[in-house]
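Format notes (please read before filing issues)

Several people have asked whether sequences and structure tokens are stored in separate files. They are not. Every record keeps both together, in the order shown below: the sequence lines, then the token lines. Line labels are part of the format and must not be stripped during preprocessing.
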Amino acid sequence: MSLRTAGSVLVVFLWSVTAVLGQTGWSVTYTTQSICALKGSTVDLTCSYTYPSGTVKTTFWFTKMKTGKEPEDLGQDPEYADRLEYHGDKKKDCTLKITDLRERDSATYKFRFITDQTRGRYFGKPGVTLSVTGLQVKVTGGHQDKTLTCSTTCTLTDNPTYIWYKNGHKVKEDTSSLYSDSFSDADSYSCAVKGHADLLSPAVCQKCWSVTYTHQSICVLKGSTVDISCSYTYPSYHEIKKAFWFTKWSGMKAEDLSSVPGYEGHIEYLGDSLVY
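Then the structure lines:
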């Protein structure tokens, strides 16, 4: 597996579960059965394992298994390139760290190990179900008094503290995901979770223009693939005719990267993100 420096971790601990094979002495114990983590953060999938005899030769995690075929080692999957760190060993620890989480990482992860004994291979059930969520600001209420909610698709526990931003400046810190006040339609609002201030939600604004970039600085390997993701807002009375990315601005004109020599054929616009 490729290594990468780990970032911050935000997880939800629900319960511990042990997966036991029908043969004596074989087991995999997952510390958590279900984890909810923020998009862009880092998560640890922790577990331990036992076996009756022999020497462990191979260890890996996987998410997919086909009948009659050996499951695919996530370390060989390009989707996880440079984002996996196996912190386990070939004795009893099987901890896996995944960095820079993406929503498509949501899956059930299982650990497999193979020994030098005849029929000495096993994977632990049921695995760890990982749900990756972004933050989204939802607006409810009347014209003057509105309530903003910092919303996620799965529940963050450990009593997270929410940070609210108005026009890019921090205005409130609270354990509640709700923010009630008289809000101006000309101001933009976004939220984050304390400890993950760099993982801001897209800004919401009723009558203003804004672009929120998920990451302002990215370092990647030559020849690899990168997602440059963002979200944008605009006044409701406007209709978007064209959206594109650019690197150079000349006068009042910007050139669409998709038509720039050198980028043709290896960039892909996916709505709110650019992949190349």
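For reference, the curators noted about this record: The chain is about 0% helix and 40% strand. Residues 1-22 have pLDDT under 50 and may be disordered.
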